[in-house]
Amino acid sequence: MAVMTMAKALNEALRRSMEDDAKVIVMGEDVGTLGGVFRVTDGLQKDFGEDRVMDTPLAESGIVGTAIGLAMRGYRPVCEIQFDGFVYPAYDQIVSQLAKMHARSKGAVPMPITIRIPFGGGIGAVEHHSESPEAYFAHTAGLKVVACSNPADAWSMMQQAVHSDDPVVFFEPKRRYWEKAEVDTSAAPQSLWKARIARPGTDATLIAYGPMVRTCLDAATAAEEDGRDLEVVDLRSLSPLDLSTVVESVRRTRRAVVVHEAPSFVGLGAELAARLSEELYYEMEAPVLRVTGFDTPYPPSRLEEDYLPDLDRVLHAVDRSLAFA
């Protein structure tokens, strides 16, 4: 066991992937000499050289377009989008080319590209630096979309994403980069597409991913003082969704609250609410509730704590769910 931050776990996962396969390359803005703005790629260029860890121009469309060409030539590019709000110039390449290439070639052309995106708020950043664009990509057929929530998952999920033959959009919660936890680097990894029960409980299920998993775990701990036993499900994969784990949990607790930083309208919470209503309409004791960011542009940093879901908002939703007879 080793204690490491999420940023360090991602760094070690990239290092292991590059050691295992010479075709794995890392590319993005400031990923080489600087080691990335969050230092996730720190030291990789020094150890693997400029041919495998490449500083690119400030052109996200060019980064992804180049990665697509490299993937067609047998490489496994890992692209860093420096901040979540910078991904939109690459959106056309990701949706119009990357997501469709495998289907267009009838499976003959794999697209083993991992697109790393630091996402979410909580760091007091300026405009375009604290967004949650995951629903755009989860909606896009042909893409796999995942989000890690802790160092152990960051370690295993990144390696699995890099070695997948499908394009993977990999969301990293930037507010959790410096949180530490034990990582067993010798443990067999859980499937990349499998949700996990982060905390078992009996009274209600909190469903979250990325940065909100820690918030939900803290809410579950606080709820113990009122004698409430909350289960927390970490989705891990947003597309495909591991609905069986979610349904099994909600079938036991009969109540569900979905929590994410992105706005509520057409978000992951809406999809989960619809699916749970279809599967468990006659078994649930309360409607599926959502705790999310608001349907507004992300606010200035001084207001972000009012925008982001927090422990109090999660517990209030739990109160509302349990109030249904």
Helix content: 25-40%
Q: What is the CATH architecture annotation of the largest domain?
A: 3-Layer(aba) Sandwich
- Reported by name, the CATH topology of the largest domain is Rossmann fold
**Strands side by side in the biggest sheet:** 3-2-4-5-7-6-12
Q: Report on the biggest sheet.
A: 7 strands, mixed
Mean pLDDT: 96
* Fourth CATH level, the homologous superfamily of the largest domain: Thiamin diphosphate (ThDP)-binding fold, Pyr/PP domains
Question: How many structural domains can be distinguished in the coordinates?
Answer: 2
Total E-strand runs: 14
Number of contiguous helices: 11
What's the SSE pattern?
A: EHEHEHEHEHEHEEEEHEEHEHEHH
- From the N-terminal CA to the C-terminal CA, the straight-line distance is 46 Å
**Percent of residues in beta strands?**
15-25%
Low-confidence stretches: none
CATH class of the largest domain: Alpha Beta
Radius of gyration from the alpha-carbon trace, in angstroms: 19 Å
Secondary structure category: alpha/beta
The shape is globular
Can you describe this structure?
This protein has 325 residues and is α/β, with parallel strands linked by helices. The protein folds into two domains: 2-183, 3-Layer(aba) Sandwich (Rossmann fold); 196-323, Rossmann fold (3-Layer(aba) Sandwich). It is 36% helix and 21% strand. It contains eleven helices and 14 strands. A seven-stranded mixed beta sheet has the order 3-2-4-5-7-6-12, sandwiched between helices. It has a five-stranded mixed beta sheet with strand order 9-11-10-13-14, sandwiched between helices. Strands 1-8 form a two-stranded antiparallel ribbon. Helix 2 links the parallel strand 2 and strand 3. Helix 3 packs parallel to helix 4, helix 7 (212-223) crosses helix 11 (311-323) and helix 8 packs across helix 9. The N and C termini lie far apart (46 Å).
